[in-house]
Design a protein that fits this description.
The protein is rod-shaped, with a radius of gyration of 61 Å. The protein has about 150 residues and is an all-alpha fold. It starts with 6 loop residues before the first helix and ends in a 9-residue tail after the last helix. The longest helix is centred in the middle third of the chain and has 137 residues.
């Protein structure tokens, strides 16, 4: 029976399989695979270049962070130095103002004491004069002598 005779059919299939395999192998080897390899090579170069750029950018970022931190620390140090100088200047100025105020107070006290002494002396002189007037008038009334004639 011809339907059961598969050997000739099988051999022709093996032949065409071999032919198409060789054609597919040649096409893939000489045309498709070089393009794929070139694409993969370009992709690897692209990735490697970006990785190296990324490394450079990371290093630059780290340097910028270090510079920022150092400048920040310098600014903090400078600010604390300025604050300390301002405190010292404020203390010096306050001490100076306190001394000036104390000196003014002392001079005012001396002036006031001098005025009080002067007023006291003047009051004593005035009191003495009034006492003399009172005594002369009292003696004048008691003795019936004129006030101008009595000398005390």
């Amino acid at each position: 029976m011809p339907q059961l005779e598969q050997i000739e059919f099988f051999i022709s299939q093996l032949f065409w399989l071999g032919v198409f395999f060789v054609i597919l192998f040649v096409v893939l080897t000489y045309f498709t695979l070089p393009k794929i390899r070139a694409f993969l090579k370009k992709r690897d170069e692209f990735v490697n270049s970006h990785l190296s750029k990324q490394d450079e950018l990371i290093k630059k970022a780290e340097q910028l962070i270090e510079n920022y931190e150092s400048k920040l620390n310098e600014a903090k140090d400078k600010a604390s130095q300025i604050i300390n100088e301002a405190k010292e200047n404020a203390l010096k100025e306050s001490e100076k103002l306190i001394k000036e105020t104390e000196e003014k107070i002392q001079s005012e006290i001396k002036k006031t004491e001098a005025r009080v002494d002067q007023e006291k002396k003047q009051a004593l002189v005035d009191l003495e004069g009034q006492l003399k007037d009172s005594a002369t008038s009292f003696l004048g009334k008691i003795t019936n002598i004129n006030k101008e004639d009595i000398k005390i």
